[in-house]
């Protein structure tokens, strides 16, 4: 047996499948890292406008929970509701948030749409309160736990009636 065959066999044993984005050859985590890097390079005009680094880390944490089931009142690490996912992601990134979407909205610095960056929170009003929240991932998309019967996912922002907040 040649050395190349031995190496080849050992590489095959340690090979693990990598989850891929449909239509892409890059794993989702690598794609997200590239997106965040690009956002940092082409980001806001001044450092004062940039989301703190924990916001970018929260995006990575939320992305790692893709596919976790929705459960009302759950805050992770295996199940989440919308504000539970944001609370968990920011906690893992080193920043505390209150429990509910409404409390999180009241606890953030409100920012206009044109200043949003990955890691900001996206709030969806429901009457006089905030009924839903997700983490802005860039390119008009959020990571969120939508509703019962669904799983954590990356989804395009579907409404023009949203508010943006930056955890401080």
Question: How would you portray this structure in words?
Answer:
There is one protein chain. The protein has 168 residues and is of the alpha+beta class. It has one domain (23-167): endopeptidase domain like (from Nostoc punctiforme) (endopeptidase fold (from Nostoc punctiforme), Alpha-Beta Complex), CATH 3.90.1720.10. 33% of the residues lie in helices and 20% in strands. It contains five helices and six strands; from the N terminus they run αααααββββββ. The longest helix has 14 residues, at 28-41. The N and C termini lie far apart (61 Å). Mean pLDDT is 81; it is low at 1-21 and 38-49. This is Putative endopeptidase p60. Residues 10-19 have a biased composition (Basic residues).
Please indicate the count of domains.
1
Q: With helices defined by DSSP (H or I, 4 residues minimum), what is the helix count?
A: 5
**SS-derived structural category:** alpha+beta
Order of helices and strands: HHHHHEEEEEE
The low-confidence runs, each spanning 5 or more residues with pLDDT under 50, are 1-21, 38-49
Mean pLDDT: 81
N-end to C-end Cα span: 61 Å
């Amino acid at each position: 047996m040649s050395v190349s065959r031995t190496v080849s066999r050992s590489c095959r044993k340690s090979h693990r499948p990598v989850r891929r984005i449909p239509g892409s050859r890059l794993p989702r985590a690598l794609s997200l890292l590239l997106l965040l890097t690009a956002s940092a390079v082409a980001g806001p005009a001044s450092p004062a406008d940039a989301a703190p680094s924990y916001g970018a880390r929260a995006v990575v944490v939320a992305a790692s929970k893709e596919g976790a089931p929705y459960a009302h009142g759950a805050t992770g690490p295996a199940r989440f509701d919308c504000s539970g996912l944001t609370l968990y992601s920011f906690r893992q990134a080193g920043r505390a948030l209150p429990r509910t979407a409404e409390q999180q909205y009241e606890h953030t610095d409100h920012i206009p749409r044109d200043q949003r960056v990955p890691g900001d929170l996206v709030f969806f009003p429901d009457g006089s309160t905030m009924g839903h929240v997700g983490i802005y991932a860039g390119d008009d998309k959020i990571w969120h736990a939508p509703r019962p019967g669904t799983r954590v996912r990356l989804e395009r922002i579907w409404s023009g009636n949203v508010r943006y907040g930056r955890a401080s």
